[in-house]
Amino acid sequence: MKKVAFLSMVMMLWITACEKEKLTPTDLNVEDRGQNKVTVCHIAGNGAFHPLQVNQNALANHLSHGDYLPDADGDGYTAIGACTGSQDDCDDTDAAIHPGAEEVCDGIDNDCDGQTDEEDIKSPTLVCINGLAVNMPASGMVTQAASSFLAYAEDNCTPSNLLVFSIRKAGQGSGFPVDTFGDPIPSVTFDCSELGTQLIELWVKDLAGNVDYCETYLLLQDNQFVCPD
Fold this sequence. Notes:
CATH architecture of the domain at 125-221: Sandwich
Shape: rod-shaped
Distance between the termini: 138 Å
Number of helices: 3
Structural class: alpha+beta
CATH class of the domain at 125-221: Mainly Beta
Order of helices and strands: HHEEHEEEEEEEE
Helix content: 10-25%
Strand order of the largest sheet: 4-10-9-7
CATH topology of the domain at 125-221: Immunoglobulin-like
Strand content: 25-35%
C-alpha cells in the first residue's frame, strides 16, 4: 500500500514538472516582476475587446494574435472606438493629432473637432500686374480673364491651385464678386463706349473664405478705328 502511494506521489510530481516546463517566464510572471506593463485591447472568444495589462516583453505576442494598442501613438488619447481610455483620438498613428492639439494649416484636423484649418483667419496675398493695354478687335468688344491681371498670389494655408479668383470693373459692387448663381466672375468685357483707362478689381478667396483684392487698370485702345467716332 505504501509502495502504491509512493508511486502515485512520484507520478504527480513528474506531471507537475512537465507542465511547468511548458510555461514561459511571461506566463509565470516570475522573471518579469518589476517590468513595465502595457494596456492592450484584448480580443475575447466572442470577438469583443476588453482592456488587459500585459508585460512589455509579451506585447508582440499579443499584437500578433489580434490584440491592439488603444493608444498606439502614445499621446495619452486612445483611438475612437478603443476598448478603454478617452476614445476620441481621430488619428492614433500621429502623436501630434489629438483633442486639444494646436490646429495648424496643413489640411489636417489636428485637434479632432471635425474641422480642418479652422483657425485660418489670414487673407491671401494678392498682387496685380501694373496695367494692361489692349487693342479693340473687329468685333467691337474685348473680354479679359481675371488671370490676365494676376501677377502673384499665395496663402498661408490654401495651395495656390485652390485659390479662387474673381474680377469686376471698379466701383460696381463690394465684397468678393459673384454672379447671380453665386459663382466667381471669371472675366470682364468692354465695348467701344469704354475706350481709355478702365480700373479693375481683382479678388482672391482661400478655402477658409478669407478674401483680398488689388486694383489695376486696362487701357483700351482703338488703333484699327473699329469704334465709331
